[in-house]
Hints:
The protein is α+β, with helices and mostly antiparallel strands. The chain has 4 helices and 7 strands. The strands form 3 sheets. A 3-stranded antiparallel β-sheet has the order 3-6-5. The chain has a two-stranded antiparallel ribbon with strand order 1-2. The chain starts with a helix and ends with a strand.
Amino acid sequence: AQAMADQVTKSLGGAGIWGVEFFIGKNKVWFSELSPRPHDTGMVTLAGTQNLNQFELHARAVLGFPIPKIELLKSGASQVILASEASDSYKITGIEKVISEPKTNVFIFGKPNTRAYRRMGVIVGYDDLGADIVKLKERVKVLGVRVEVASA
């Protein structure tokens, strides 16, 4: 996946963060999507999981500023918040249930409308570096069902 991402982004040129997503199988890697900008899959960096978040990295790359070695500072996991249906008027509920949990943040994207399975936000959980990542991922996944996106 890293070799494929390197080849694609070098061919396109430009500067900044490239969100290159893949599907990983047992013995195969498939290209999924390319985003030439910070992306919701990198929102976990906003929880202080590393010394520079994705927006700081993007700005440094675009402006030609130096990028130091990236250091992991915390363990992190994220869970996407999906819309369940198409709507031009929607309401997001349950955020207060999630942000009352320690070491948890919610980011809502503010999109003008929804469609089934559209990414509307992300829940980010974090813990001390070296924390059990399986438990952290499960905690964030459970929190994800507390937030609902539905027609208003």
